[in-house]
Amino acid sequence: MENSKIEVGDQVPHFTLKDQNGENFAIRDYIGKKKMIIFFYPKDESAVCTKEACAFRDSYQYFEEAGAIVIGINSGSAESHKAFAQHHNLNFTLLSDPENKVLKLFGIKNFLFLTGRETFVIDESGKVKFRYRGLLNGNAHVEETIEYLQSQKVRV
Fold first, then answer.
1. b or e along 87-106 (b: 16 or more beta carbons within 10 Å of the residue's beta carbon)?
2. What is the pLDDT of residues 70-107, one digit of tens each?
3. Do the domain assignments include residue 4?
4. Res 144: pLDDT
5. How many domains are there within the chain?
6. Is residue 49 annotated as a catalytic residue, yes or no?
7. Which residues form a coiled coil (predicted)?
């Protein structure tokens, strides 16, 4: 499945990564229990990534009311994620994918020298319901995800 592209309707691949606290986060623990908003972003503390993460933070209550958890993933270390989360009061999980294995499982393509920026909505059964790709406007990921959820009347 590596380097294949995850499309709407596909089952989310199973993976386990370290979160910003150094704890294992296994996606299988959430399938059947929660919807998931998974966003891949290139780098902690870069301008667009910070805007995107802060937009997810500021909209977190909406996602929570929709029964979803928010998960950000990139190749940064758990320590980098922890500092990023603390610096910007992020209220969601950040996962460290140091070799970009999960990024490749999802089929996310690089843009020039940066890893891709894509957001996925996963329903409670683990199926991909929505996918959005856009590199230069971090806020659009949150706006498009909320628009999708509203179009589904919060029933993903």
1. eeebebbbbbbeebebbbbb
2. 999 999 999 999 999 999 999 999 999 999 999 999 98
3. no
4. 92
5. 1
6. yes
7. none
pTM over 0.85: yes
Residue position matching structure tokens 């970009």: 100
Q: What is the CATH number of the domain that holds 119?
A: 3.40.30.10
The answer to whether residues 49 and 41 touch, using CB atoms and an 8 Å cutoff, is yes
Which residue's structure tokens are 């920026």? 117
The dihedral sign for the CA sequence 83, 18, 30, 122: positive
In single-letter form, the type of residue at position 9 comes to G
CB-neighbour burial class of residue 63 (10 A; exposed 0-12, middle 13-18, buried 19+): buried
Active-site annotation holder among 6, 12, 36, 49: 49
- Residue 88's domain comprises 16-151
What are the tens digits of pLDDT across the range 26-64? Answer: 999 999 999 999 999 999 999 999 999 999 999 999 999
**118: in domain:** yes
Say if 11 falls within a structural domain: no
Does 2 reside within a domain?
no
